[in-house]
Amino acid sequence: MTRERWRSSFSEWYNEVIERAQILDVRYPVKGLYVWFPYGFQVRKHVLGVIRRLLEEKGHQETLFPLLIPEDEFAKEAQHIKGFEDEVYWVTHGGLEPLNVKLALRPTSETAIYPMFKVWIRSHSDMPLKIYQVVNTFRYETKHTRPLIRLREITTFKEAHTAHASWEDAEGQVREAVGIYKAFFDALCIPYTVSRRPPWDKFPGAEYTTAFDTLFPEGRTLQIGTVHNLGQNFARTFGITFENLKGEQEHVYQTCYGISDRVIASLLVVHGDDKGLCLPPVAAPIQAVIIPIWFKGKGDEVNQEVARLKDELAGLRIHVDGRELRPGNKFYDWELKGVPLRIEVGPKDIAAGQVTVVRRDTGEKGALPRAGIKEGIERLLDDIATSLRERAWKEMESRIAKCANLDEAAPILKERGGIVRVDWCGDEACGKALEERLDTDILGTIEEQPKGLCAGCGHEAKHVIQLARTF
Ligand code: P5A
Ligand code: ZN
Questions:
Q1: Which among 206, 209, 281 has a CA at the least distance from the CA of 50?
Q2: What's the 419 CA to ligand 2 centre distance in angstroms?
Q3: Rounded distance, CA 303 to CA 309, Å?
Q4: Alpha helices per DSSP H over 58-152
Q5: Backbone angles phi, psi at 47, to 5 degrees
Q6: Hey, how many other C-beta atoms are within 10 angstroms of the C-beta on 466?
Q7: Over the stretch 26-68, which tens digit does the pLDDT of each residue have?
Q8: pLDDT reported for residue 379
Q9: Closest residue (by CA) to atom 4 of ligand 1?
Q10: Of 11, 15, 330, 391, which sits with the fewest C-beta atoms within 10 Å of its C-beta?
Q11: Nearest ligand for residue 158 CA
């Protein structure tokens, strides 16, 4: 497999592949809004299936809140409104009539959900309360918009919101959420780093923010999920209280965490190559495509065998490509679309009691015995997932560098990008100066002890931070 264009001309590769592989149509006439093709929508459905299962296993219940948020609720939390005010779309009219109270298109749903938490929560026995929804949200992004990566309509916003009776319980929930997202990204074979955002870049209204980032081949990172400990900040603003065990009214402790279409972007980019997509089996609309290889006079025999094979593979997502095209053209199509496994069935395979299999990830061609074929295919799909995961992790880890000082860090970030780790004092002015000098962003601090002095100012270091150019 080659990854030349994938590595060197990311934007070109990305725009071409999402269109040609029929993930998104980018021709919708509003900036930052895109249309899901049916094939892309299937990928989205399988990705959501994974996160839904993980959340529900841990007791989250799915709900649905309105898209519109009245201005007075939206403006209640001072930090929150400050963080979002220049990104909000407003509905000001109903027909020709101006509305008494303007309505915000949710950029996220804290201010839609928490007024309801106030009426739902009465006592400690109402908690933990753990809900989630999958909705579209709107953010008037001013930075360069890009399909799935920086959207003005985020079409796949999975947000979870929880309430607890103590700070410790909320802390436990943050750990659970981080665990859920790790399992989610592992299932999708997407490598990640976890770091705590610097205080000046936390989610507006949060105590602190933990972020997941992945690395793209051209050297920049993408934030693909965040977990926020909200403490009692929103509870105070929205008056969400409960009667604690001592019989007193106390404000609840909250967390929220979210992911978006960016997860799907990562799935496409991290595993792709010059031939197009390479989808991990868990997210692939078609896990294996069967291509009948017709030879003169043997068409019926091949078709019957293909039909039997498809029956035996029931439970897997299988597609038979019976189009009147040359096999080579079909191979090319399914490679572009990222189907993890190709099965070829011709007279020679039938005679030998086997099928021919070709892996999308490595291009490796082999044969599987016809007897016990389902187990054989399942094992191969598992192998593909494992090697995609390992390859992606290796690739990311090979581009994380620990640097002793800025002279070491600067050329790395400039020439090949990736993630650089340095010791840091924790001071805001120093952090911002660091970002400026290296022309990068701080992703956050990681759970590792610093060994030297601050790479920015030379004072005592308190943290190790990660820096990268970001999307
Ligand atoms: C957590 C869920 C929140 O909004 N409220 C509910 C919290 N956090 S966040 O960090 O602001 O957003 C969550 C994740 O959404 C992705 N994201 C985007 N994806 C595509 N286009 C955008 N314009 C966009 N903005 C944010 C990020 O992955 C972020 O981590
Ligand atoms: Zn410093």
A1: 281
A2: 19
A3: 10
A4: 71-74, 78-84, 110-120
A5: -65, -45
A6: 25
A7: 999 999 999 999 999 999 999 999 999 999 999 999 999 999 9
A8: 98
A9: 108
A10: 11
A11: 1
Listing DSSP states for 214-227 in one string gives: EE-TTS-EEEEEEE
- Structural domains in the chain, CATH included, are 4-270 (3.30.930.10), 288-383 (3.40.50.800), 400-468 (3.30.110.30)
Are the C-beta atoms of 133 and 63 separated by less than 8 Å? yes
Rounded-to-integer distance, Cα 425 and Cα 430, Å: 8
Amino acid of residue 295? F
What is the three-class DSSP state of 295? Answer: coil
Biggest CA pair distance of the chain: 85
Q: Decide if 336 contacts 277 (C-beta within 8 A).
A: yes
Q: What is the C-alpha radius of gyration for the chain, rounded to an integer number of angstroms?
A: 25
Q: In what order do the strands lie in the sheet with 419-424?
A: 61-62, 129-138, 153-164, 253-259, 221-231, 208-215, 193-196, 441-446, 463-468, 419-424, 400-402
The residue contributing the CA closest to ligand 1 atom 13 is 258
* Residue 189 contacts residue 271 (beta carbons within 8 Å): yes
**Is residue 357 within 8 Å of residue 367, measured between CB atoms?**
yes
Angle between helices 373-397 and 262-271 (to 10 degrees): 100
Pocket of ligand 1 (CB under 6 A): 108, 110, 139, 141, 150-151, 154, 159, 203, 223-226, 228, 256-262
Query: Which residue puts its alpha carbon closest to atom 12 of ligand 1?
Result: 258
At residue 339 the predicted structure's pLDDT band, cuts being 50, 70 and 90, is: very high
